[in-house]
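Throughout our pipeline, every protein is held as a single compact record rather than as scattered files. Nothing more is needed to write down the fold, since each code stands for a local backbone conformation. For reference, a complete record is included directly beneath this paragraph.
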Amino acid sequence: MFDPKTNKYPYPMETDHHYLVVHKNRGIVFDSKYPYIDRSKWFVFKQNVVRFMLNILVFPLCTIRMGLKIEGRNNLKKHKETLRNGTLSVCNHVHMWDYIAVMKAIRPYRSNMLSWAPNVNGENGTLIRMVGGIPIPDTNLAGTMAYLKAVKDLLVNDHGWLHVYSEGSMWEYYAPVRPFKRGAANIAVNCDKPMLPLGFSYRKPGWIRKKLFHQIARLTLHIGEPIFPDHALNEKERERDLIRRSHEAVCRLCGIEPDENLYPAIFDHSKRVDYYTSEYGVGYHNSR
């Protein structure tokens, strides 16, 4: 496994914290009236236009720019009967635009994605919504209940696809898989749906990418096989078991043996492990 070991980015001390600054607040309130999954004809039309542009322009550019390689698409065909009845995918979050790679990898399935609420309220919020972003309310109880109901309707009634970054935040080109928060496993248990592990690993950039484009690494996205909730366990243990197994699966897809990963599977206010340097983000201006 190639580890970029970059210190370009200011990885926070807490493993689920963000470091990118959202420069705009559009003032949207994510309460019980907010359309977490907008099914209006106008919104769906705009999403279809965006999807068309993704297929003809964005996906090819993404593949070239990221040096993207996708492995394991045969698992989508192998488990198509399971996946088309509703599923959650989980993945390490290692690039600002890695969801584009996820969308390309899982075609013809179309996914929604849980998103940090300030991102949806920020300067990229419209684009995030167009590609299926669902804001997670962080202070509004009524909004949280409405969001959970919308997600359950998506998985159970619409047999849809929900993508979750269980690490809780994006750390660019970070190799170890950070601990998983409980959200995805909780939804999977409550909806009785499988989780499909995905994992990004890295490849060394060639001379042109490294010298001319200052690319730190090329990305490979690996697609695993579905993991199902264990009904022999009570609900609480079923959730914890699903977190552990999905985290182990993502580690292996990334080329890391779970017992050699730096972090535990389950988030418990985990702190960053400085395994090669203690200085990050020196001179990086787009951070807190």
